[in-house]
Every structure is written in structure tokens, then in C-alpha cells.
Write a structure and sequence with these properties.
Elements (H helix, E strand, L loop, with lengths): L21 E2 L21 E5 L5 E3 L1 H5 L4 E8 L4 E12 H7 L8 E6 L4 E5 H4 L5 E6 L2 E2 L9 E3 L12 E7 L6 H4 L16
Parallel strand pairs: 1-5, 2-11
Antiparallel strand pairs: 2-3, 4-5, 5-8, 6-7, 6-11, 8-9, 8-10
Bound molecules: the ligand Nc1nc2c(c(=O)[nH]1)N[C@H]1C(S)=C(S)[C@@H](COP(=O)(O)O)O[C@H]1N2 and molybdenum atom (MO).
């Protein structure tokens, strides 16, 4: 007899489906504002803040940093979860290896085309499975899901997985991003139900 997906356990013994979540097979589209217009010719990924040297990558340069494929689950704060998403793109670790951070850099703010921001500790970005994805389940991202590039942070609520990414700013302190300013939890661990502050 097979275990219902919602009762599966992770290797660390935690339930695969976090508390208060239900499984969905579709993929809802959620964002604030409208889909930004982006052109790959002028697309840039900017790195600034507490770095020894600011950098700006073109689409080709950014993708040349490295490519990885990783399968993970999505947990949205609005209570839907979607299992087994295969993402392909640039692992955060590859970006990290291509830049030089100042020792005080402990936090990051992700900046997006359209103005969205979200904050994360550096050590969370360095976890395995965190990547800047250009594809989902073998297809390029659609515009509504973040084309050409989105961040994927599988161990936190999905609002941290910023769509239409355009850069990262390194900080010495944690600062709230867009939703974090409007009452979402500063960190957002789905297994601790850190939904709202
Ligand atoms: N740039 C940007 N990224 C964003 C958002 C947004 O408003 N703007 N919303 C976040 C929220 S709240 C969620 S739940 C997910 C939804 O991603 P999806 O539309 O691909 O399901 O995107 C996140 N990334
Ligand atoms: Mo969300």
C-alpha cells in the first residue's frame, strides 16, 4: 500500500507537507502588480552592497556561471503546496564563487524587475537546492511564473522565490523586503508556520 503524498516524511523526519498546507497539482500564479517587460538583450543581473567589487552580468555571462538541475517542493503561504518541481538554472553557489563579499555581508536583498524585493540570510542562499531558475519541468519559465529568471528557495515559503530577478544587494543586517514590510514573517519557515509577523 502506498503512503498518501501528504503523509510522506522527509529524511530529517519532518512531514513532507508542512502543517496547514494542502497539495495542489496545478500551479497558481500569484504576484503583486503587473508582469514586467523584459528583453534578454538588455537583461542584467546586478550585484552590489557589501561586495569588494560591484558586478553586472549579461544573460549569457550569468548563465555561464554554472547550471544545475534540482527537484523540490513549493509551499505557498496561502496554503497550497506543489510537489516535485524540477528547476534548472544557476545555483546560488556559482554566483557566490564568482563575486567577493565583504566579511560583514551576512544578509541579502533580492531585487526584481518591477520593483519587488525579498530578504534572506546569506547562509540560506548557500543551501543546496537554491538556484536562479530559467526552466521548470523542462520548459522555459512562462512570463507569469518569472521569465526569464526567478529565484527558487525550496525550504522557505514561496514568496521568497522572487520572480523576474534582476539583482542582489548584500547587507550586514536583515531588512524587510516587499511582503515582509506588509506583515509577512521576516524569515518564513513553512515547518514552523512562520506565515505572518
Ligand atoms: N517579482 C515578484 N516575485 C514574486 C512575487 C511578486 O509579487 N513579485 N510574489 C511572490 C509570491 S507571494 C508567491 S506565492 C510566488 C508565486 O509564484 P508563482 O506565480 O510562480 O506561483 O512568487 C513570489 N515571487
Ligand atoms: Mo504568496
Amino acid at each position: 500500500m502506498s503512503t498518501p503524498a501528504s503523509k510522506e516524511l522527509r529524511p530529517d523526519g519532518k512531514p513532507r507537507l508542512p502543517p496547514g498546507q494542502h497539495l495542489t497539482t496545478g500551479w497558481p500564479v500569484l504576484h503583486y502588480g503587473s508582469i514586467p517587460r523584459i528583453d534578454l538583450e538588455t537583461w542584467r543581473f546586478h550585484v552590489w552592497g557589501l561586495v569588494e567589487e560591484e558586478k553586472s552580468f549579461t544573460w549569457e555571462e550569468f548563465n555561464a556561471l554554472g547550471q544545475v538541475t534540482d527537484t523540490s517542493d513549493i509551499h505557498c503561504v496561502t496554503t497550497w503546496s506543489k510537489f516535485d518541481n524540477t528547476w534548472e538554472g544557476v545555483p546560488f553557489r556559482a554566483l557566490y564563487d564568482a563575486i567577493r563579499l565583504k566579511p560583514e555581508a551576512k544578509y541579502a536583498m533580492i531585487h526584481c524587475y518591477g520593483g519587488y524585493t525579498t530578504n534572506l540570510p546569506l547562509e540560506d542562499l548557500l543551501r543546496e537546492g537554491v538556484l536562479f531558475a530559467h526552466s521548470h519541468n523542462g520548459q522555459p519559465l512562462t512570463k507569469e511564473h518569472g521569465w526569464p529568471m526567478r529565484l527558487v528557495v525550496p525550504h522557505l515559503y514561496f514568496w521568497k522565490s522572487a520572480k523576474w530577478v534582476g539583482g542582489i544587494q548584500f547587507l550586514d543586517r536583515d531588512r524587510p523586503g516587499f511582503w515582509e514590510t506588509y506583515g509577512y514573517h521576516i524569515y518564513g519557515d513553512p515547518w514552523k508556520e512562520q506565515r505572518y509577523a
